[in-house]
Design goal:
The protein has 498 residues and is of the alpha/beta class. It folds into two domains: 2-159, Rossmann fold, CATH 3.40.50.2300; 186-465, pyruvate-formate lyase- activating enzyme (Alpha-Beta Horseshoe). Helix content is 40%, strand content 17%. The chain has 17 helices and 19 strands. Strand 16 (323-326) and strand 17 (329-333) form a beta hairpin. Helix 1 crosses helix 5 (127-139), helix 2 (52-63) packs across helix 3 and helix 14 (424-449) runs antiparallel to helix 15 (451-465). It is globular, with a radius of gyration of 22 Å.
Length: 498
């Protein structure tokens, strides 16, 4: 059976696509876990944002798929529906499957034929569900016993029971299959990048996060042998940067320290590693953890700061993971200590902050922006976004603060909710005005690290960072809000991928 797996072209706008294009690790994992006699192709459409329709048409023609699978996040839903319509027009009778965060948490959104319905919806972890689905489609058997699957019969949708979360220690989830990728161009500022998973899950319950709704509060780990084999495979396929995409790798700090040693002992510390971590874990254990991370090759740490104000952390349910522990007690916010440990060991901090919470004022937003200016190396500042079934969504709707239902704009950097004190557009303007200059500050360091890439693409990165701005606006000869209006218009146009 021929299987074509597509990730959506819609991307977050924090970095230009010329600088960062990550593979969708879930699709490679699906490909590695179907029965080996199937002919699978994986296409990350983020690599071809300017020619999506042509590339999809070519792939459907060349691959002649019996099954087409789409991995979808909420802000990619509109694009997914359009791709479903395109694929059906190109190949009538093909079976279409959707999976990922959005179909898992809002499966009924993919059941309406008027908006581009899928035949099957994979909810939660996909490897075992998709494997069983492919077997059923191939044999012509029923799918009623495939756990974790929803399926459409005419206008009716049946939701099978959830699939239990997979314990990764058993080895039942096989390694990803990177050989089946049919597009090229993955990059992390000029260095070929790949993704590797060492664990899944998180036991915290942050109000903005979809993970708990996807899989509950749990934490499962792959064996080190499997992780190291995955890293070797990524390197063998050309990766010189590797993003460890775990939901929360720092939940078990001792395991993370042991993983760093294993990477060093295996001689796999010759690539740049990126990881996301909790401030509290790094602050509490950074004296020993940070040097190990640096020896293992870690260069960037996405730090889940979330917010520097206690009242906002309470709304985000992120107080516990941002608190230092000392002598068995609470020693205050962990962020500064975590950043200090990382900087002492020559690692860069990507500062994850969320501004525009329900009670935010201009002063509270500026406090977070000022913190980012002073302490983080690269900003990743987002606005709270009401994704399906998150606790945050419930509160925003109860308080009547959601002002935008256009899901294609639920990309984290478009403010789609207001606060009690500020309009959504004003919140977004404050972030936009400050963040572009923070990004500019880090650009020279990256260009020194990859000078050839800088010579070829530095101007493109600058144009992306300051799109909407003109020389007049940068010199203060034009109202910044006019530049901001142009930026928003550009963002709207950029979202039309299909």
């Amino acid at each position: 059976m021929n299987v074509l797996l597509l990730s959506m072209p819609d991307s977050f706008e924090h970095m230009p696509a010329v600088a960062i294009r990550m593979p969708n690790g879930a699709l490679s994992s699906l490909a590695g876990n179907v029965d080996p006699h199937h002919r699978v192709a994986v296409a990350d459409l983020v690599l071809v944002q300017d020619r999506v329709r042509d590339v999809v048409a070519r792939l459907v023609r060349e691959q002649e798929p019996d099954v087409v699978g789409l991995s979808v996040m909420t802000f990619q839903r509109r694009t997914a529906h359009r791709l479903i319509e395109l694929v059906r027009a190109l190949r009538p009778g093909v079976r279409i499957v959707v999976g990922g965060y959005d179909p898992s948490l809002a499966p009924d959104a993919y059941a309406d034929p008027a908006s581009g319905a899928a035949d099957f919806i994979v909810r939660g972890e996909g490897e075992l569900t998709f494997r069983e689905l492919c077997r059923a489609v191939e044999s012509g058997g029923g799918v009623e016993r495939v756990a974790g699957l929803s399926f459409r019969r005419g206008d009716h949708v049946t939701h099978n029971p959830d699939r239990p979360v997979t314990g990764l220690e058993s080895g039942e989830i096989r390694l990803p299959n990177r050989d089946v990728r049919v597009l090229r161009g993955y990059t992390m500022v000029g260095r070929q990048v790949d993704v590797v998973e060492t664990s899944r899950g998180c036991t915290f319950d942050c109000s903005f996060c979809s993970i708990i709704e996807m899989r509950g509060r749990n934490f499962h780990t792959f064996s080190f042998d499997r992780v190291l084999a995955d890293i070797r495979d990524a390197r063998a396929h050309g990766a010189r940067s590797i993003f460890l995409v775990d939901d929360n790798i720092t939940l078990n700090v001792r395991r993370f320290e042991a993983l760093c040693r294993a990477i060093v002992d295996a001689g796999l510390n010759d690539v740049d590693y990126l990881v996301q971590g909790m401030t509290s874990a790094i602050a509490d254990h950074g004296e020993t953890l940070a040097p190990l991370m640096r020896r293992a090759g870690f260069r960037y740490v996405f730090l889940g700061i979330e917010n520097v104000l206690d009242e906002d952390l309470r709304f985000l349910r992120a107080v516990a993971k941002n608190r230092r522990r000392e002598g068995g007690g609470n020693a205050g916010n962990a962020t500064l200590q975590a950043i200090e440990y990382l900087h002492q060991n020559r690692m860069y901090v990507v500062g994850g902050l969320i501004v525009g919470n329900p009670d935010d004022t201009p002063e509270s937003i500026e406090a977070n922006l000022d913190f980012a200016r002073r302490y983080v190396d690269y900003p990743y500042i987002q606005h709270p976004t009401p994704y399906p079934r998150t606790p945050m969504t419930k509160e925003f709707r109860e308080r009547g603060l959601v002002i935008n239902e256009r899901l294609e704009e639920y990309d984290g950097t478009t403010a789609v909710v207001r606060s009690e004190h500020l309009a959504a557009e004003e919140i977004e303007f404050l972030r936009w005005r400050a963040e572009r200059w923070m990004k500019l500050r880090h650009l020279p360091r990256e260009l020194v690290h990859n000078p050839l890439f800088g010579l070829r693409h530095g101007a493109k990165m600058l144009r992306h960072t300051f799109r909407g701005s003109t020389l007049r606006s940068l010199l203060g000869l034009e109202d910044e809000r006019r530049a901001f209006a142009r930026y928003r218009a550009i963002r709207r146009a950029e979202r039309a991928y299909v």
